[in-house]
């Protein structure tokens, strides 16, 4: 009998243990969903928020600490707790968010990266047009009806980043680099003076399809889609979405890309990683690198002493003096969240208050997308980019509207073949346009 | 009387348990967030289990057996069967990872076989699998012979050959990418990195995967070779069999079942190759095929991953995964049945 009792107990324990997983999950969901429901309400008579913590999923892991400290200060100020959860460093953010949604654990504020993500998440987004920050920026993400649904928190820009000291020694004015011929002359001049300037090549470009597809297929190709156009002009991206390209414009782009590749370090060009590409330039061995202001935080790692700035990747024969600048991603408020008003208040504070602006610009080292922002960036490329933005001399990132994964799965490979010399100019144009047509069609 | 009482009692327990669970689930589905849901659910299950356990029937023994298997069965159902069935279901829809709006029938399957990148990665995966199976098994068998011979320090060899298998594939991949890109090009002056040529890049993955996996397979061969009875070996020695004959006529037939295991493992492992592929090349370099650019080393697992994640086409990726499973099942079952015929029954 005793034995049997023991067996019953064991069986119960097994069953209980097999369920603990579920039970634990339930309670965890509760704490995540409505943190400290009773406790903060009781003592939080002075707090403005209604006590429920809001949770923000951030996609830029590098600003995690800065956001957390801003959230802590915000809690002190308003009593509203904000939990910052940062994803990044190779994490598939969309996949994680989809998991959260399926598990009923969706954050109140979540990150999304442009048109493709917008299509996935649009039925979960709150209309933010009424917020005061929405009218203070050109960079908010607007849906088809013109409603603002994405909160911009940083502007990034890219082109050809130059080593100003080398350009000065070679007698090239970076301001003059606004068309194909200017670049041709500059590249030739610098190439002929390579030895005295201590360079191994003129440019540092990486076009390997496996890891650098985003640089070629998205960033460089982005100039074809946007250069010279007004920010809301979608001519070429609309054509691309239908699987068409402008052969004449793409031809000029091919000419420029060929020149860019031919003046690049050949090893880095076809087998280099991002680190290789950046190191080559940062060590002063090339004059140009095709990256943008996101390399600012890496400059101290390479002990960069020279002055630098961003020039437009002006591939056209006509002058195009602007660089491509836009938000890399936006934050959106989950429309079934428990505490939408608190989310709106938090975003508003981040965008418009002095502390918020300081957190974004000074602490995170980013460029504020808000016209009312008075903080000035200090890192060299951010300063350079800011001058373009202040002058209104920027083009938008139309490439973010391309079909998802096109660079990784299709066009990146074409750029690699072009870089390896397997394709001539005409073949490149032909193959790129047929690749785009195929990708759009399928 | 006692039995009757027990039966009533246990039935009551079961009913109360069922009610508790049903109520807990009802609360869950109606979005109620009261914190006792989970406890109620667990308590209900415990009551049912206890009730079943003391229920006096002739089948008592088998009920107990099933009850003790329950945790494993549930785990198997939730982690293996459930995703598998759902996966097949999703492959027939336009699922985007969140929800689906309509059924597309076999539309995904048609799209899949029409896309060039999939057909190409299909073929390249087969090629890689065959080559990798041959290389890994030859290398592993040779190493196993070395480690079971009378060579000095064979235990040291055994440990060091096994070591690469303990390092994660992603780390290994990046380390080897560095070696191919930097070390080899520096060692052979003026050479291009192997990873820039489509055929050499495939060879590069083969080198790394053989290097990584041969040690593991070697261990299985070593175990097999050690299991060859000493008396047979001595008898053959007396009969004048030399090393080669003993190997070919005695050792290899005796360890035929080890070959089955090793072939099966390498086959499945190479077919599912993902981490090395992702870390070393991520599909690059590209090659021209019929006037189109294709990524030359994108194996099926990577292709599925990119379809779902990079293209955000979860349903199509799921479809590819279903087909991947079917092919893998067919190929490995065929291979096992062929090898089985060659085994010697002791």
Automatic annotation (TrEMBL), chain A:
<feature type="compositionally biased region" description="Low complexity">
    <location>
        <begin position="25"/>
        <end position="39"/>
    </location>
</feature>
<feature type="region of interest" description="Disordered">
    <location>
        <begin position="25"/>
        <end position="50"/>
    </location>
</feature>
<dbReference type="Pfam" id="PF01547">
    <property type="entry name" value="SBP_bac_1"/>
</dbReference>
<feature type="signal peptide">
    <location>
        <begin position="1"/>
        <end position="23"/>
    </location>
</feature>
<protein>
    <submittedName>
        <fullName>Raffinose/stachyose/melibiose transport system substrate-binding protein</fullName>
    </submittedName>
</protein>
<dbReference type="InterPro" id="IPR050490">
    <property type="entry name" value="Bact_solute-bd_prot1"/>
</dbReference>
<keyword id="KW-0732">Signal</keyword>
<dbReference type="InterPro" id="IPR006059">
    <property type="entry name" value="SBP"/>
</dbReference>
TrEMBL record, chain B:
<keyword id="KW-0812">Transmembrane</keyword>
<feature type="transmembrane region" description="Helical">
    <location>
        <begin position="35"/>
        <end position="55"/>
    </location>
</feature>
<feature type="transmembrane region" description="Helical">
    <location>
        <begin position="321"/>
        <end position="338"/>
    </location>
</feature>
<feature type="transmembrane region" description="Helical">
    <location>
        <begin position="118"/>
        <end position="147"/>
    </location>
</feature>
<dbReference type="GO" id="GO:0055085">
    <property type="term" value="P:transmembrane transport"/>
</dbReference>
<feature type="domain" description="ABC transmembrane type-1">
    <location>
        <begin position="118"/>
        <end position="335"/>
    </location>
</feature>
<keyword id="KW-1133">Transmembrane helix</keyword>
<keyword id="KW-0813">Transport</keyword>
<keyword id="KW-0472">Membrane</keyword>
<feature type="transmembrane region" description="Helical">
    <location>
        <begin position="200"/>
        <end position="223"/>
    </location>
</feature>
<feature type="transmembrane region" description="Helical">
    <location>
        <begin position="159"/>
        <end position="180"/>
    </location>
</feature>
<feature type="transmembrane region" description="Helical">
    <location>
        <begin position="67"/>
        <end position="92"/>
    </location>
</feature>
<dbReference type="InterPro" id="IPR035906">
    <property type="entry name" value="MetI-like_sf"/>
</dbReference>
<dbReference type="GO" id="GO:0005886">
    <property type="term" value="C:plasma membrane"/>
</dbReference>
<dbReference type="Pfam" id="PF00528">
    <property type="entry name" value="BPD_transp_1"/>
</dbReference>
<comment type="similarity">
    <text>Belongs to the binding-protein-dependent transport system permease family.</text>
</comment>
<protein>
    <submittedName>
        <fullName>Raffinose/stachyose/melibiose transport system permease protein</fullName>
    </submittedName>
</protein>
<dbReference type="InterPro" id="IPR051393">
    <property type="entry name" value="ABC_transporter_permease"/>
</dbReference>
<keyword id="KW-1003">Cell membrane</keyword>
<feature type="transmembrane region" description="Helical">
    <location>
        <begin position="9"/>
        <end position="29"/>
    </location>
</feature>
<dbReference type="InterPro" id="IPR000515">
    <property type="entry name" value="MetI-like"/>
</dbReference>
